[in-house]
Design a protein that fits this description.
Elements (H helix, E strand, L loop, with lengths): L3 E2 L1 H9 L3 E5 L3 H7 L1 E2 L8 E3 L3 E4 L2 E4 L1 H11 L6 E5 L5 H11 L5 E4 L2 H7 L4 E2 L6
Parallel strand pairs: 1-8, 2-4, 2-7, 7-8
Antiparallel strand pairs: 3-9, 5-6
InterPro entries: Rhodanese-like_dom, Rhodanese-like_dom_sf, STR17/STR18/HARC1-like
Organism: Zooxanthella nutricula
Protein name: Rhodanese domain-containing protein
């Protein structure tokens, strides 16, 4: 069973510094609408797009995505809040994480849209050079 939280509960988890935010949206989506602002100290925000454009539209290659996540989070006990735009992709991503043995995952049920609508802080995405 996938654990879900709403934006305000997710923000409280992130404030502890123990939970990382895994944004599964594409960088272009983040550029258009922003990302959840993270506390200065903590596990931070990590962009690992789950559903990418394919020949038949958006596709989720769970194995490839899990490989990318494992590069960022080799510890399968890392606490993660997984978010997308509206709470659809994050559910599929969380299910894949749980099947891969990650034990501390929850998904943002109302997505980034809910985060922004709740008046929670939004930041511009940071892009490495």
């Amino acid at each position: 069973v996938i654990q879900s939280v709403r934006s305000r509960e997710a923000a409280a988890l992130l404030e502890t510094g123990e939970w990382a935010y895994v944004d599964v949206r594409l960088p272009e989506e983040q550029d258009r609408s922003g990302v959840p602002a993270m506390p200065e100290f903590g596990a931070g925000l990590h962009t690992v797009p789950s559903h990418v454009p394919g020949p038949m539209g958006m596709a989720f290659d769970a194995a490839a995505w899990l490989t990318a996540v494992a590069e960022v989070f080799p510890d399968r006990q890392q606490k993660m809040v997984v978010g997308c735009a509206a709470g659809v992709r994050s559910k599929a991503a969380c299910a894949a994480l749980e099947q891969a043995g990650y034990t501390e995952v929850t998904e943002l049920d109302d997505g980034f849209a809910g985060w922004a609508a709740s008046g929670l802080p939004v930041a511009a995405p940071e892009r490495g050079s």
